[in-house]
Structures are given as C-alpha cells and as structure tokens.
Amino acid sequence: MNKNKQAFTLIEIMVMVAILTMISGVAYRLMTGTFSQFFKSQTKLTNLRAASLILERLKADMRLALIPITDAEKPVVEGSKIEFCIIDEGRRRMVKYSFNDGEIRRNVVGGSNRIISKVKVSDFRVEESGEGDSKLISIVVVVDSDKDLEDRSQSDKGNQVELRAVLYPRFFIETLSDEEKFWNLARYTSGGTP
C-alpha cells in the first residue's frame, strides 16, 4: 500500500473557509452598497422628473394666461394656490392650481379637474413679488415620494428634490407696456382674444 496519499488537513480546510468567508463578506458589502446607491439614485431621479412635470404643466398654462378683462379674471396668488385666466376649449376660463394633502390639483372652472402630481409632494409655494413693471411669480415644488416611510435610512432622506422657477406672466397688467395694452384692447373689442 502506498502511504503517500495527498489530502487536506483540518487546518488547511479551516484557513480556506476563513478566506472564502472574508471574500464573500466583502463581495456582499460591495453588492449591497452598489444596489443601495442605484435605488437611491432612481428614487431621486423619479422625484426630479415628477417635480419637473409639475413645473412644466404650470409653465405651459402660464404661457396661455390671458390679460384679465373683468374683476373675476384677476389672478389670485396665495401661498399654496394660484388662479388665473386661460383659453380652454375656445373659451376664457379660470384655472386653479392648489396644494393639499401631498397632491397638486389643476381645476379648470367649467372644464377638467385632475391631480397633476404622480408622487407625494412635500411642499408647493407660489409667491408674487416685485412691483410696478417688474412683477414676477416665484414657484417652489418639493417632492419626496418616500416621506411617509418610517423605516427609511438617513441616506434615503436625501432623496428630496426641490425645484424653483421664476416666471413673468403677462396677466399682470402693470407689467404691460402702453403699446401692449392698446393692442390687447383692440383685439378684444374686435372679437379676438387678448
């Protein structure tokens, strides 16, 4: 019989198991860190897209804003709501954006009403500033879709996105030049839309 059999000793097996355990632990930490960063960036990107869509919708309506003709068409800017006149389905109608319970609603008087925020909105503020011919509207949208999750980590709290926009809508009559006022009045009296 040949007594020179090659085999692993118990110490060699234990050293190998310890090395494999360390390597798998490092690989696990790398993988969980990578996936955690991926999901965090995806959530932040989703929040950014949602805030952008809200602002784009509001800016699109602001571009359609009409110069008020009656007192009922005068714009209202109050903290978390804004209301102004637009052309909707060929008619002059008031559109109102309001923030309540994490949702931004777009209501058109006599028209469609819908929620324009697809995720939870933490804050929505609209402020009128400036005076005379330099009036503007400042809009702030804060989106944090994970806000209500109680078990989120400290790094997940950084997923909040805040977007700001400054708009110069034409519904402020004070900002219009005399020439614009003249032509708007002429269009209105001839049956057009100012």
Describe this entry's structure for a reader.
With 194 residues, the chain is of the alpha+beta class. It has one domain. Helix content is 34%, strand content 28%. It has a 5-stranded antiparallel sheet with strand order 1-2-3-4-5, with helices on one face. Strand 6 and strand 7 (136-143) form a beta hairpin. The mean pLDDT is 82.
Can you summarize this structure?
The chain is an alpha+beta fold and about 190 residues long.
Chain-wise SSE layout:
Blueprint: H1 10-63, E1 76-78, E2 81-88, E3 91-100, E4 103-108, E5 113-115, E6 121-129, E7 136-143, E8 161-167, H2 178-189
Antiparallel strand pairs: 1-2, 2-3, 3-4, 4-5, 6-7, 7-8
Strand order of the largest sheet: 1-2-3-4-5
Q: Roughly how much helix do the residues carry, as a percent range? A: 25-40%
Q: What is the number of domains? A: 1
Whole-angstrom Rg: 30 Å
Number of DSSP E strands: 8
Largest sheet: 5 strands, antiparallel
Principal-axes shape call: rod-shaped
> Number of helix segments?
2
Q: Overall mean pLDDT score?
A: 82
Structural class assignment:
alpha+beta
pLDDT < 50 stretches = none
Q: List the secondary-structure elements in sequence, H or E.
A: HEEEEEEEEH
Q: Could you tell me how far the N terminus lies from the C terminus, measured between alpha carbons in angstroms? A: 109 Å
Beta-strand share of residues: 25-35%
